[in-house]
Structures are given as structure tokens and as C-alpha cells.
Amino acid sequence: MLIYKFPLLFTLIVLLAPLPAQCQNEDAEDESAGKLQEYEVLFDGSSLDKWRGYAKEEIGKGWKIDGDTLHFDGSGGGDIITKATFDDFELEFEWKVSKGGNSGIMYRVSLGDGAPYISGPEYQILDNDGHADGKSSLTSAASLYGLIEASGEGPKPVGEWNHAKIVLKGALIEHWLNGEKVVAIEIGSDDWNERLAKSKFRDWKKFAKNDSGHIAFQDHGDPVWFRNIKIRSLSAKD
Is there a contact between 119 and 214 (Cβ–Cβ < 8 Å)? Predict the structure, then answer.
């Protein structure tokens, strides 16, 4: 019988033995890094203190706090942007749009241009069924507008909340919709360059060139709602 007990005893000794110091240090570093990368709330339903207008510092008339949501009512006022700039980050938010509605989120945006999309790639916000842009996968909801189509099932019906995430890490861009990664591409890759050359952005000298910038929420003239907007840095320096 002993011949069968020894393997079990050896397995128990291995499992209960302390981790090597190097592994313990790596685990501690991972935990420490996780603590440093906490989310910053950009909008919690009570204040727009972390936002400003794109063309001017004042926030335009169409943007309102409505309960726990940031609501653009379609009456004008221009795009809004974060006061802070971000390089590598993970941005999470929820959105819903009006019937036939169109909006977008742009990132690594520069000030001083005619519009945020001159420099910033866009996460498309759209009623796919009710807007003409929904007929093309390149301009449908959660796509990297005009460049990379969004895979997956698409957004929920108009009036229902969608959960979105945008991840930027160096040259890597990811778009997420309702828990599913729907876009992944690296700026400057062969795939990127081929797509860019076929797009309207091919001669835009500032487009997707910034290492950091503001995050912009678009006034596209249609009512749209956002809530639970939060961001965390993915920068190594943090």
C-alpha cells in the first residue's frame, strides 16, 4: 500500500510549499499595480466639473445633467471634452441613443482644430436600424468610425442601455460593446495602413497621431444619453 501513498504525499508537499521569493515578489507587484490603477469617475450624475467645451471652455446649452445621466438634448452647444488629457487608458461608460440618433466618442484629441475628429479616432454611437450609417459595418455602432467594422451582435434596441469600453495601450486600440470585444487594431500596422489608405482620413495629417489627448463626446445634433463614465490609467509610469 505504501507504494500508492508516496505520490500523494509528494503532491501535498509540493502544493503546501512556500512560493519562491521571485514569484512572491511578482504577485506583490501585480497587486500593487492593481491598486494604482483605480478608476477615476468622470461623471457620476452630479457634476460636470471634469468637462469643458471643445471650442470654448463653457459647456454648450444642449448638455444637461438629467438624474444620473449626462444628456445631450439635440439643441446644440458643440462637443464637450475632458479637461484632463490621457495617454494609455481604459474608459467605461453606458450609452443609449434616440431613434435614428448618431453620436460618438473620440480619444487622444487635440485642441485648436475645427473639430475633435480631426485628430481623434471615434467610437461610433448609433441607432443601427434607424440611421443610414447603420447600413455600413464601417460606420455602425461601436465601429472605429470609417476604418474598422465592429463585429458581434450590435447594440441593444433604441431606448435600452449599452455598456461600452475603449482601451488604448500604446498603439493598440480596442472597442468593446456589452461585454464583447468588437474592434482590435494597432495604429501603424499593415492592416491599419491599408485601411487608412482607403478611408477619408488618408490625407489628414493629424489623425490618430497623438500619444495622448482629451476625450470628446460629440454633439451630432441628435439626443443621446450617457452614464457611469469612468476611466483608469494603463500607463506604466502610474
Answer: no
pTM of the shown model: 0.84
Q: What is the pLDDT along the chain (238 residues), one digit of tens a residue?
A: 444 444 444 444 434 444 444 444 434 334 444 455 799 999 999 999 999 999 999 999 999 999 999 999 999 999 999 999 999 999 999 999 999 999 999 999 999 999 999 999 999 999 999 999 999 999 999 999 999 999 999 999 999 999 999 999 999 999 999 999 999 999 999 999 999 999 999 999 999 999 999 999 999 999 999 999 999 999 875 4
Cβ atoms of residues 78 and 60 within 8 Å: yes
Helices within 87-219 (DSSP H only): 190-197
Alpha carbons 153 and 158: distance in angstroms, whole number: 14
Q: In what order do the strands lie in the sheet with 51-53?
A: 51-53, 80-82, 214-217, 102-109, 122-126
**Of 81, 44, 75, nearest in space to 224 by CA:** 75
For cell 451582435, the residue is: 153
Residue 67 CA to residue 217 CA, distance in Å, equals 19
3-state secondary structure of 148: strand
| CB proximity list for 47: less than 8 A, separation 6 or greater | 65
